[in-house]
Design goal:
Elements: E1 2-6, E2 9-16, E3 23-27, H1 34-39, H2 43-49, E4 53-57, H3 76-89, E5 95-100, H4 102-113, E6 118-124, H5 129-132, H6 138-145, H7 155-166, H8 171-180, H9 187-190, E7 197-202, H10 211-217, E8 221-226, H11 238-253
Parallel strand pairs: 3-4, 3-5, 5-6, 6-7, 7-8
Antiparallel strand pairs: 1-2, 2-4
Helix pairs in contact: 3-4, 6-7, 6-8
């Protein structure tokens, strides 16, 4: 992967597809990385095949990016600045921005910070939880810090601990991240996001909240139900990819 430094933090990223293509910036979810979230699920191929230039970073604390164990270094504003620094580094003046789960929250903070850079916004795996919260995540931090997964009794904690182990993640960095990256977005902030926004959540997702409720809060929002998918499986769904490509096509044709 390529590397850049933002405020002293080393950030790894992928840059795929035609250099003259319209850019799509992808921001992955918690405990994942660019390869797991976007390459292995077929997103990078689908987007590059459609002629887009795909930029995907490993968030700080994840993948090949620098692992920080200080909780103060993982606010959404700081993590969104990594993505903005990447666009500046590549001299990309505008992009479709899509995030999944935590990445959807970070994508929102990217749009809040630099709305002029965001052609469209796609929030996957996170609906009304963006403003209402997604439950108590302290057990997840505890699960990540437990000596063994056998010591974890909380069901959601076990899910994310198992995922972190599968992705060979730095669990101390992830625990620090989950403690600081959950800042909620207010309804007043949502009103400022006038770019077309697609909110896509699995119908079996018990984490992200309602896509329809969030879409109704946005000036130019629309919801998409990823049928029969839970939080972990929705990201690679074919209907979700088709909906996003159609969404981009409608924007570019307008």
């Amino acid at each position: 992967m390529n590397m850049l430094s933002n405020d002293g933090v080393e950030i790894a990223y992928l840059d795929e597809g035609p250099r003259n293509g319209i850019a799509v910036l992808l921001i992955h979810g918690f405990a994942s990385n660019a390869h797991v979230n976007w390459v292995f699920t077929g997103w990078v191929k689908s987007l590059t095949d459609a002629g887009f230039r795909v930029i995907a970073l490993d968030n700080r604390g994840h993948g090949a990016s620098q692992k920080l164990h200080d909780t103060a270094r993982y606010t959404p504003v700081q993590m969104a600045s990594d993505a903005l620094s990447l666009l500046a580094h590549l001299a990309i003046g505008s992009a479709h921005v899509m995030g999944y789960s935590m990445g959807a929250r970070l994508s929102t903070f990217v749009a809040l910070a630099e709305p002029g850079l965001v052609r469209t916004l796609t929030l996957g795996g996170l609906g009304s939880g963006l403003t209402e919260g997604v439950g108590d995540w302290d057990p997840i931090a505890a699960a990540l810090l437990a000596p063994s997964i056998d010591d974890v009794m909380d069901e959601r904690g076990r899910t994310f601990r198992n995922f972190a182990d599968q992705t060979h993640s730095d669990r101390l960095a992830l625990a620090a991240c989950i403690k600081s990256s959950r800042t909620l977005v207010t309804q007043d902030q949502l009103k400022t996001l006038v770019m077309p926004t697609l909110v896509a959540v699995g119908t079996r997702d018990d984490i992200g909240g309602s896509p329809h409720k969030l879409a109704d809060m946005l000036p130019n929002g629309q919801a998409f139900d990823i049928e029969n998918r839970d939080h972990m499986l929705a990201v690679g769904d074919r209907s979700y990819k088709a909906a996003v490509l159609a969404f981009y096509g409608d924007y570019e044709a307008s």
